[in-house]
Design brief:
Distance between the termini: 29 Å
Helix content: 25-40%
Largest sheet: 6 strands, parallel
Radius of gyration: 23 Å
Oligomer: single chain
Strand order of the largest sheet: 10-9-8-14-15-16
Bound molecules: adenosine-5'-diphosphate, magnesium ion
Length: 412
């Protein structure tokens, strides 16, 4: 990786401003899924073991520049405190004299969490003054919030104008895993893409087209491709204005010799709700008033066959409306199959909020090669775009001595 990480500076005695992604689901004042908190523990522990003090910054939910009581970070801090076995106080506000004093009192080995950054609209506006204040809380900046790296906010981009900026260990792991897909993935390389809409995934399809040996398309987005092939899809989710794009993608795949696997049968339901009447039909027999809600058993078998030779598999997007258990068969089977393939030595990377949730629900995340903590961020990364929160991290200089590395490095 060409970015400097926390292993590239001496944290001892430093006040480290760490951007984490603690945007976790909270229910009844308790953290419901702590995977994002756990994912950043290696970074926090490393820094604490090396005698740093930590000022943690995160957002939670979408308070849109106002104080929203239910979006306070206290439950997150309580959870983190239990994991670290250290007190984790939260400031009343990210700004203010009290916060400045609390930061000034921090001693090596201690942790302080700033209140939800998005209680100020300046955070998402990447406001220069807000960023300057945040930066004043630390000697160095560490970004471990891969899930927010596609956003140019004060805490992800603005602060890096004032402090030497390093990647945390989670950030490093994400960059390494996702770049391995773009750089030299063991072949054959197959991408399983599902989820709701083609529109959100056109960029990923285009960029991966240059790299994969096979695409397997399921979920709602398959419908647009099925229509491009001349089928009708009844009441199913369909992006009619993208049928032409879908047709072009199919042509490109054909021209490049990229295998393109679409479902041949689907589970259709009268309503997309729990308990609705449902049946399996061939894709050219989808009834007018029914919706495709999952890929069918024959398609599952074809997907599996197409994946059998793959040495690298990327999965994004559930293959059906998996939130309704009856429509989640293909998604659950895919998750189990991929866990097995990872056990057998294939590189299996799962990215995307809902697909990751499906894998986690089954308790399979530990068996995959890598589970990306960033939904939108991992997709933008795979589109081949440079994420602003990564771009501002210091580059590892290979030819030159590291004089110019830190923007705020002391001039001697
Ligand atoms: P991810 O978060 O993994 O990137 P998306 O957000 O793109 O995935 O898509 C997830 C959503 O897609 C889920 O809410 C799921 O219900 C929906 N979905 C999957 N298959 C279908 C389908 N056949 N029809 C409608 N929605 C679907
Ligand atoms: Mg999603």
């Amino acid at each position: 990786m060409d970015k400097l990480t926390i292993r590239d500076f001496d944290p001892s005695g430093k006040r480290v401003l760490v951007r984490v992604d603690f945007n976790v689901p909270i229910e009844d004042g308790k953290v419901k899924d702590d995977s994002r908190i756990r994912a950043t523990l290696p970074t926090l522990r490393y820094l604490l073991e090396h005698n740093a003090s930590l000022v943690l910054m995160s957002h939670l939910g979408r308070p849109k520049g106002k104080v929203v009581e239910s979006a306070r970070l206290r439950p997150v801090a309580a959870w983190l405190s239990a994991l670290l076995r250290l007190p984790v106080p939260v400031t009343g506000d990210a700004l203010g004299v009290g916060t400045r004093d609390a930061v000034a009192r921090l001693k090596p080995g201690q942790v302080l969490m700033l209140e939800n950054l998005r209680f100020h609209s300046e955070e998402e506006q990447n406001d220069a003054e807000y960023a300057t204040t945040l930066a004043s809380y630390g000697d160095v900046f560490v970004n471990d919030a891969f899930g927010t790296a596609h956003r140019a906010h004060a805490s992800t981009v603005g602060v890096a104008a004032h402090l030497p900026a390093y990647a945390g260990l989670l950030m490093e792991r994400e960059i390494k895993a996702l770049s391995s897909l773009l750089e030299s993935p063991p072949r054959p390389f197959a991408a399983v893409i599902g989820g709701a809409k083609v529109s959100g995934k056109l960029g990923v399809l285009a960029n991966l087209m240059e790299r994969v040996d096979a695409f397997l398309i399921g979920g709602g987005m398959a419908n647009t491709f099925l229509v491009a092939q001349g089928n009708s899809v009844g009441k199913s989710l369909l992006e009619r204005d993208l049928v032409e794009d879908a047709r072009r993608i199919l042509e490109t795949a054909e021209r490049k010799g990229v295998q393109f696997v679409l479902p041949t049968d689907v589970l259709v339901a009268k309503e997309v709700t729990r308990g609705a009447e449902h049946k399996v039909v061939s894709v050219n027999k989808i009834p007018n008033s029914w919706s495709a809600v999952d890929i069918g058993p024959a398609s599952r078998e074809q997907f599996r066959e197409a994946l059998e030779p793959a040495q690298t598999i990327f999965w994004n997007g559930p293959l059906g409306v998996f939130e309704v258990p009856t429509f989640g068969d293909a998604t659950r089977r895919m998750a189990r199959y991929l866990a097995q393939r990872a056990d057998d030595g294939a590189t299996v990377i799962v990215g995307g909020g809902d697909s990751v949730a499906a894998v986690e629900e089954l308790g399979l995340s530990g068996r995959m090669t890598h589970i990306s903590t960033g939904g939108g961020a991992s997709l933008e990364f795979l589109e081949g775009r440079e994420l602003p929160g990564i771009a501002v991290l210091q580059n590892r200089l290979t030819e030159q001595p590291p004089v110019a590395a830190g923007r705020s490095a002391q001039k001697s």
